[in-house]
Amino acid sequence: MNLYHDAMDHCAPDEGLRGRLEQGVLSARPERARTFRPRRKKTAVALLAAVLLLATSATTIWDPLFVRRFGPQAALSALGGAVFQEVDLTSDCDDVSLTVTQALCSDKTIHYILEYRLPEGAPQEGYRFPDLYYYGTGNYTWEELRDKCQDDWSGLDWTTLTSYAEYIQSEDNPLQPFRLKREGGSGSFSGKAEDGVLSFCFSLDAGQGVDLTQQPLTILVTPPYTQTEDGTRTAVTDHPAIVTFQPAYDGPQARSAVLEEGDVKITATLSTFSLSLEAQGMDYPWYDDMVKDTRLVTKDGQEKAVSLMGFTSGGSGILAADSREATEVSTTVHFIGITDISKFTAIRMGDYEIPLS
Fold first, then answer.
1. What is the largest CA-CA distance in the chain?
2. Quick check: do 3-245 and 255-355 share a fold?
3. Is 139 helix (H, G, I), strand (E, B) or coil?
4. Between β-strands 326-335 and 310-319, what pairing exists: parallel, antiparallel or unpaired?
5. Intra-chain end-to-end CA distance of the chain, in Å
6. Are the C-beta atoms of 55 and 106 separated by less than 8 Å?
7. Topology of domain 3-245, per CATH?
8. What is the rounded CA–CA span in Å between residue 213 and residue 252?
9. What is the dihedral of CA 296, 302, 308, 309, to 10 degrees?
10. Residues 205, 108: contact at Cβ < 8 Å?
11. Which residues contact 114 (CB under 8 A, 6 or more apart)?
12. What is the DSSP string of 241-291?
């Protein structure tokens, strides 16, 4: 049964639903299965985070970080129910632990809340981002990875990428053969711990040919570190940590568009959270020019400018050796909201209209 498509036929909430949700928000949250969770400030955003997953007829609460990112209306939609996953999975990694609390997932993109419990006595503020690496496997527990790699870890400086990058990419890392291709990612956090826990909101855009729901996802996290005014860095521990879970999604699958005509090649992948674009031979000076010249075509023939639907976090290009002009540009547009991709039939870039399939 496709819960998303079933819900779309009767997704209007009954009269008075919003009032009941707002009145019952604090009591509606389901009991957590894990042993700890940092206290969060109860704000208006937290109140709006109470949602009814119409697709499953189950009441739950979106994390306020998700509500701030996508808005309360996304949480109340049937598609919001299709992408939402209550994970609540903790991996104890000796003196630290990782918990994935919730995720919003499609087959191509995942947003998730990650909590990093610090060692006893660790500083509570001034932290810098850890590095994250993604693997499409569930073959290794923390204990198995530690037993195989602790000798390699002992000589690494986890505050400096150049120190541990070789290990991450080498055969000494048993996860390396399962590393996922990725097109991008982002993250946010305050740099401060609450009750000894750092809370992050991360996202991952899977690369071409990768379906995030087809295998378990293992996330390796390097130790967060603090840095003093004189530049001295101190990692919270002397080892990375891992957590593994199975992403789930019950919505429209990603759609693609491909055109090859002479020197012109255009490829696009449209999913619930994003649109990946690549153009060759279109004479765009840079990737943002490509985005400005791209539209999505709806079933009734209307066009929606991609540049108004979301934002990019950077892009790339290949420059001609002689002219230094871009011959190929690529980027990923992250939608501001959760997008029902079934409404679109084609992508239009310049004078080319390419069907989505």
1. 66
2. yes
3. coil
4. antiparallel
5. 22
6. no
7. Immunoglobulin-like (2.60.40)
8. 13
9. -50
10. yes
11. 98, 99, 100, 101, 199, 200, 201, 202, 219, 221, 243
12. EEEEE-----SPPPEEEEEEETTEEEEEEE-SSEEEEEEESS--SSHHHHH
Only one residue has tokens 């990923």, namely 332
How far, in Å, CA of 76 to CA of 59, rounded?
11
In one-letter notation, the amino acid at residue 205 is D
* Domain spans, the chain: 3-245, 255-355
- Tokens at 330, concatenated: 């690529």
Number of Cβ atoms within 10 Å of the Cβ of 285: 11
What amino acid occupies position 169? Q
Three-state secondary-structure class, residue 85:
strand
* Distance from C-alpha of 272 to C-alpha of 37, rounded to nearest angstrom: 29
* CA–CA dist 135, 133 (Å, integer): 7
DSSP-assigned beta bridge partners for residue 319:
326
Structure tokens that stand for 308 in this block = 């108004």
- The DSSP call for residue 179 is B
Two tokens, residue 36: 């700890």
The domain over range 255-355 is classified in CATH as 3.30.730: no
CB of 3 closer than 8 Å to CB of 33: no
Sign of the Cα pseudo-torsion (129, 49, 215, 182, in order) = negative
Judging by beta carbons within 10 Å of its beta carbon (0-12, 13-18, 19+), is residue 327 exposed, middle or buried? middle
Amino acid identity of residue 197, one-letter, is: V
Tokens 């808005």 found at: 71
Q: Which of 79, 99, 53 is nearest to 61 (CA)?
A: 53
**HSE of 292 in the Cβ direction (CA atoms, 13 Å)?**
6
Q: Tens digit of pLDDT per residue, the chain (357 long)?
A: 444 444 444 444 444 444 443 444 333 333 333 333 334 444 444 444 444 444 444 446 899 989 988 988 898 888 999 999 999 999 999 999 999 999 999 999 999 999 999 999 999 999 999 999 999 999 999 999 999 999 999 999 999 999 999 999 999 999 999 999 887 788 887 778 999 999 999 999 998 889 999 999 999 999 999 999 899 999 999 999 999 999 999 888 999 999 999 999 999 999 999 999 999 999 999 999 999 999 999 999 999 999 999 999 888 888 877 767 788 999 999 999 999 999 999 999 999 999 999
